[in-house]
Amino acid sequence: MKxxxxxxxFRLAPLSPGEGLGVRPARLAILLSGxxxxxxxxxxxxxxxxxxxxxEIVVVFSNKPDAxxxxxxxxxxxxxxxxxxxxxxxEAFDAEAxxxxxxxxxxxxxxxxxxxxxxxxxxxxxxxxxxxxHPADTHQHQGLHAYEWAFDNQxxxxxxxxxxxxEGLDTGPILAQQIVDxxxxxxxxxxxxxxxxxxxxxxxxxxxxxxxxxxHAERSEASLPQ
Length: 226
Ligand code: GRF
Known about the structure:
The chain is of the alpha/beta class. The protein has one domain: Rossmann fold (3-Layer(aba) Sandwich), CATH 3.40.50.170. The protein has helices spanning 37-48, 68-75, 90-102, 120-123, 146-152, 188-222; strands spanning 2-3, 26-32, 55-62, 80-82, 108-111, 130-134, 157-164, 174-181. An eight-stranded mixed β-sheet has the order 1-8-7-6-5-2-3-4, sandwiched between helices. Helix 1 crosses helix 6 (188-222). The protein is globular, with a radius of gyration of 17 Å.
């Protein structure tokens, strides 16, 4: 997995002054609109994998109350919340969603198939702390249907990208990338199977690295002479 320079600029803000990240798991809010396979992989990683002891999922949120991923999270004992976005104006919905999520005090807002472009009303309260995963190099492909794009163009590889979220569509600074070999994948289902297997691993690992990096930066800053 390749970690990019923007990683170095990342800072995890402590919840309140004096409460360092070194003593407790980072609080993650996971946002989804669909099946939730990345959410499940992250949940597993907090239980038995690379995020164990480093992160906890404080809420799984969806803009679609009937999203399969929400049901799956609830069945596994995760706190869930939802707010239907259908028919709502973007800014008003985003402000309400942000206020709802703030009640859970997340340090990182982790998008996992959350099918919305975020407006400033959502981004500002969590600025620099919203992360997304995209199934392609975001410099080459943005938006929906990245696996279809790779399959239709018979690409020999795709580059799973984890990035910070800004107000554009998949335009935020890249944190980490990993290549998936697509040679010989002769159906879209096979392209997706290979890609998702890598997504699940890369997302958990990048978050673990980010949290460790945040803790390290926090400790170094705390030890600087005042
Ligand atoms: C994934 O391919 C992710 O990269 C993209 O949306 C899809 C969500 O899949 N942003 P899932 O709901 O996590 O299974």
